[in-house]
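Researcher: We're teaching a course module on how sequence relates to structure. For the next exercise, students receive a sequence and then see the predicted structure as tokens, so they can try to spot secondary structure elements on their own. Here is the exercise chain.
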Amino acid sequence: MGLMRILGSVGYPSLDWIQVGITTRCNAECIYCPNPVFRKNDPGRHMSMQTFTGLSRAFPRTGLVYLQGWGEPMMHPEFVYMLKTVKDKGAKAGVTSNASLLTDERIRRLVDQGLDVLGLSVAGVDEANDRIRPGSPIKKVRQAVENVHRIRALMGSSTPSLHLAYMLMGSRRSDIRGMPGFINSLAPDQVVVSTLTLALDQEMEKEMYPARNKDDFEEFREELLDMKSQVDGQKKVFFHVYNPYLSEGPCSENIHRACYVDVDGRVLPCVYTDVSTRDRVYRYFRGRPHPVQPIDFGHVPGDTLKNIWKSRLYREFRNTFSAGECPEKCATCSKRFIDDLTHEEPEPIRVDYTGPA
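Model: And here is the predicted structure for the students to work with:
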């Protein structure tokens, strides 16, 4: 890391990652994504380069900058420049996409600029995905995966690491049987199988529950572990599953060493506190609606991430979790009931792949 980069980041927190919501625009209409709700009175917008540049002073002390929020990152006209900025600052860069805009030329530019992680989202092993993710057909994802493998080989690069972000809906539990063949045919470098953890209406909340009761959840767990055992290189398969039968646990969003910055530069604990709409929004949790309360600790570039991170309000928020308690605004969030299915002490998930892209 260059001396000037180090000096420019003096006083900034050392973070595992910063997730950056660079755009709220999307060309898909995934049924489980909150973005269509947010866009009712807002066509979507891109993060300004002034905001991104102001934030970039924090990148030299950040392990990974993940350029994705509630939107399709490839729609930002300055995406490649943003990627270059992250890499020039000495951080790793990642993104999750719906694959619809991944042309050969764009993939070559991503490889050339040193993108470290490319996640591709799916919600099915076949065309059932297309009904769940309108605008993001499974054929596009398959083609993008093939193209990434081919172009990486042609350019002699091992990056970006190709990750598959699989959203397993509660009504699609039977898809587990087809997952080994599907995953093996794509040969990704990593797979994260998640269940839905954010529902903005009652019908969608049903999709959070792949099991009928605690015993059935154990059967569900065994089905997933058996699926994993059939995958080539099974150690590359990870789980991020909502388990309502767990006792309340720590927040899975690594809030002590990570943060989220929304399209307007607001610094938030995680993407789940990004409610970029003027309308009142409700999160459904255990059958009841709860208003989603925005959590806002400051804005970049009006202030620096260094000052915001060290502010009294943000420190008090983090310290509440350290004390084993939960802030009121987070009390109805399912991210405190995440199961990695190992029955071991959970480690923080490096990247939240449950986003909409």
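Model: If you want an answer key for the exercise: The CA atoms of residues 66 and 351 lie 8 Å apart. Confidence is low (pLDDT under 50) at residues 345-357.
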